[in-house]
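Regression test attached.
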Amino acid sequence: MKTIYLDNNATTQVDPVVFETMQPFFTELYGNPSSMHRFGGQVGAKLKEARASVAAILGCEPSEIIFTSCGSESDNTAIRSALNAQPDKRHIITSAVEHPAVLSFCKFLEKKEGYDVTYLGTDEYGRLNLEEYEAAFRPDTAIVSIMWANNETGNIYPIGKMAQTAKQNGVFFHTDAVQAVGKVPIDLKSVPVDMLSLSGHKLHAPKGVGALFVRKKLPFRPLLIGGHQEGSRRAGTENTTGIIALGKACELALAHMDEENTEVRRLRDKLETGLLNAIPDSILNGDRDNRLPNTSNISFGYVEGEAILLMMDQLGIAASSGSACTSGSLEPSHVLRAMGVPFTFAHGSIRFSLSRFNTEEEVDFVIETLPAIIKNLRKLSPFSAEKSAPACTKSFSE
Amino acid sequence: MWEYTDKVKDHFLNPRNVGTIEDADGVGEVGSLACGDALTLYIKVDGKGIITDAKFQTFGCASAIASSSALTELLIGKPLEEAEKLTNKDIAEYLGGLPREKMHCSVMGQEALEQAIKNMRGEAPSKAEHSHEGELICECFGIFDEEILRAIKENDLQTVEDVTHFTKAGGGCGKCIDDLERLLAEAHGGTVCKTPSARPAFPAEGMTNIQRMHLIESVIDTDIRPKLQADGGNIQLVDIDRNSVLVKFMGMCSGCPSSQATLQNLVEATLKEKVDPELQVREG
Ligand code: FES
């Protein structure tokens, strides 16, 4: 059975060109870039090229890029560095809808190390309130960490404006741009963020490689201490194959950016409209006008997400659910709950995230088959719109 | 992805005995939409005390659907006396096992059966009894100490994680973890001392949405429903959207000319007092 992969915000297929580029560095070119001999040195030269490619997609200097193992490491490093560099400052501003790499770390800092954390809430569309944000700054605020785009709804946040406000308050600004890089243009020359995290496997590079942008002259405290790799900012022998792959993936993402914003968006919109029209009591979660071009989060009322996912899986369709059951936690997605999505809908949310490898036929197949799945599950359920008279059947994005 | 046995997958994809029984002798309802799983079980019993038919409707994940389907298969043809002894373990075993994290689905089946039998005998649902005798431990999922103690004993649970897998308690905000540890110690014969907790200004202050929701459910179950039932009525919690609580009157209350007064003077007033003064209750 062919897999229709619509879970690209979880991870992506490694682009065949990326795979080809990294292959020789497993077999023939396996030298350590830190070695003094030429065999290692030639690998070092490739890392330099990769660094330049990552810098190019962000519009920054190559020297401002630190390679890491993943987005989570980049997020943790950024926040920890800001706190260690300003030991007198004990306050952090973030949002309630961050990725666990930021959210759980902030909760840990709050609980175990006594930091104060302000978690900005959202409105029903998942938008942050800028007035609440401005009011959150304190003299002891050390860092703001707000994601560029949300992994569940695809919402894009006003990072330029928010970074500017932080700058005016003299506070470091970090953004987790793991979902945004490669999908929307980013130019760090015009956006005053201090640190930015990205991850390779979200843009068709393999898992296990990430990067952190740290603006020149920003005080920086490494998380990993040991060797002198990455200019002593991140110890540990480099994941050379991963880094070379990331460089290539960034080059390709830059080249495909228009396609992401036209063709991928068109397919996403077709899928979204098709499903919302065909399935009663379904709502779109998120900000319709300000979202990543590849992401659509739809809640199907009165059915549970894991059940939908498993039925879809039977047909070879892979997507993701904000339902509690799939995550090991028992509460529905923290993002949807922060947005106040009623329980009637929150448990039955499915995230579809596309990539440039998806096709029109795949989208058509999902539009054709999903309505029957929802219908069957609703037949099984003791709840329905008529029986439960839901408080809210409106679309959250109308 | 969860590792389900072929039998779980089969019962999920081809559930047996789905639906309702119009003239059921007993109906058991457990869980809620808000909790993420709910089961309504219908049973029909003949003059000899044999369960001749069982049907279900389930809202929930694959293992919740499979557990309900398995339960009905286990029930049909069984004498009531035997059915009464059925436990969640029997449901899980019938399915060739459930992931430990999903054991609460089988517990839901056992509870629905108990409710259905009670309903058949004209007894009040046990949740209301709990509220008088037991202590609410997990506010997130509305779970009382009795239920937790029973799960610990029947399934020989050893850790808080186990308790969460079997009852859901502790699976939300984690505020009840200390209490779960206390109950584990109590069940295993350890000494127990209860730490008093500071009372907030109003009961729901500082609670997460899910905790508030469970408190609302629990107040409806303990303080409101019994009063309505006394007059042949009933109430169902339909949804909660921020401060707005939507309910549905049933039985004698639906269509009653004084239902507006009941809504305001009993339902809303009680919820305001016991949960949050900002709550507004509507009928839908
Ligand atoms: S009170 Fe038990 S998990 Fe929140």
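Expected vs. actual: identical. Strands of chain B lie at 26-32, 37-45, 51-59, 136-138, 143-144, 233-241, 244-251, 280-283.
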